[in-house]
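For this section, I looked closely at a protein sequence along with its fold in token form, which I now present.
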Amino acid sequence: MVEFSDLEQQITRFHQRIEQFQHYLRKSLPDSKDTSTEAIAELDTALEELNVAVEELHIQNEELLVTRQELEFERQRYLELFEFAPDGYLVTDARGIIQEANLAAETMLDLRRDLMAGKPLIVFLTEADRQIILSRLDRLACLSLENWQSVQTVARTHPQKKQNFHTLTHFFLPNWEVTLTPRKGEPFPAILSVSGEYNSQGNLLRLRWLIRNISQQKQTEQKIREQAALLDVATEAIFVLRLEDNQILFWNKGAEQIYGWKAREAVEKTWSELWCKEVLPQLQEVRKAVIEQGKWQGELPKTTKTGREIYVESYWTLMRDEEGKPKSILVVESDITQKKQLEAQFLHAQRLESLGSLASGIAHDLNNILSPIMGVAQLLPRTIPNLEQSHLELLKILENSSKRGSELVKQILLFTRGIEGDRQLVKVRNLLWEVVTVLEQTFPKSIKIHKNIPKQNLYLVRADITQLQQVLMNLCINARDAMPNGGILTLTAQNRFVDRNLALKHPDANIGHYLVVSVADTGIGISPENLDRIFEPFFTTKERGKGTGLGLSSVFGIVKNHGGFISVDSEVGKGTCFEIYLPAQDGKIKHANLSESSPSLTGEGELLLVVDDEAAIRETLSFTLKSYNYKTITASNGTEAIELYKRHQDEISIVLLDLMMPSLDGSTTILTLKKINPQVKIIAMSGLVSYEEIGYSQEVQTAVRGFLSKPFSRDELLTTINEVIRI
């Protein structure tokens, strides 16, 4: 740019020459005054115009000075940006020879810039990256400015095809990942971006490179991959919900295992598309709590892909973005269905234990009531001779009713305490008729009960009668519940031979003879998807609170423990038929029928001490024993019994002692009698099922020679006394 002072000097010299020229004209043209005057005037005009031009040039020069200062400022600013940028910047020629480098590049490559200048960039690359860079530099050098501009124009017009053009021309390398090897130190991953600078003829002048160290990014990505792997290894279900629409953004392997949906099936679905509508209101409440409090923890009912109901322990955490705004919810859930089932089993066991304690108390009192009734019914025919036949029949009814009441109490105790009764040969026909009697008295009149039970020739089975009754009652109750509007319940019993084909269909079946009991209804039926699950513990299709899900599972367990199996046939809308197969048994049922006049039942005048807090039992026992040639003395409690035994121990042969008495209980009384006479013979009496069930110590149990469960029959009483006397 021409300096203004130089231009001003040139104009001054030019002005001086004009004045000299004017002076010359005046001298040279004295006779042509008009002409000279006119010429001088033109020169003056030209001089004025020149002065104006000079002034304009002066103004323009000042503007140029300002522009040059601004450009210098910008150049300096860009130099500082170049120098102190966090990323590395390099300038190379078209062949990739380094010309300039900034401080970050110097640090990354561990080489001073003055030593870096003149070196090829490829010396800082791995062998694999060098070949690619050289190939692309060759193509970049051959690309004309016209092609460059064409590609840029098309790429701007069609941004969706930008990557395609870059691939075709290899003109630009944006964010290309390479491995750089500094002069010293370990190689590190980096991102390279390169662009070219062309002259007006389209020739490549130089290349500008951006180098970004991505070591930290790689470490972060590795940590993310490791964390993702841990999430997939975790047995818990872990998923992320988008806050605005409850869409699933992440779904780990644990979620796949618990719920059944693969990640590709669950991701981008909303929770309403996965879980049944019954649980959605509760999920909405949980979501609201998470938004308000930031987290939530609790138990939730859920459903799997197959429709199976499960319980999960759920932890919800609100996730926020960089600005602290809520963006998603992290959910971690573990399947606690089995835990809930165990809790339910524990509670069920506790309820049974409580029921057992209550039943024990009721049984004791009820058996004390039944004992004198049975005793008197058996005693009257012996003490009152020549009774009419009708009176004898009434007494027999009284005796049988008391026996039946006693058996019923025993069954309740066995069931509530989970004790298995003795398995014996059973006529199922009699058992079925007892069940039918109960059903007819308790079921709604809208349910008709049909029986198809042969009177004879049915196989015998070896079974626990109480458990078999439980099986039949559970099946009948289920049938009743399946017919809320009424229907037909059919009970059938028949002999059947299980051949090889049928045995192959049931894992628990064997080839042979079975007694088959069928319970069929005309109810709502069972859907095919539920039919395979009906014997699972706690599975129920009934409304919450109306079914425990234990009925059919207990039926399955009892039948299997008896060596049998179950066949089920059901059709929705038509009904269900359960067939219980029980292995047939050979043999005959033996009935105890001891003769009243049997000499082994009659005493020889032995003295027996009868101890019971119930006066009716004491009197009945005393009267019965006396009628069979025994002598008796009675006591109403343990203290009185001890005093009587002290006075008559040499005469007393046996002590019949009730175990459940107030003040001094049976256990203390037994131990005291044992101290008085170590050889004392004691027969314990109780309204409980067995002596062992009472839970007395081993010392007490060994002191007892016999046990009678109230109410006991005359034959049981006399037989036990006879056996103990002979010991």
About this structure: Confidence is low (pLDDT under 50) at residues 165-171, 591-599. The first helix runs from residue 4 to 28. DSSP finds 25 helices and 22 strands in the chain. The domain at 428-583 is CATH 3.30.565.10 (Heat Shock Protein 90).
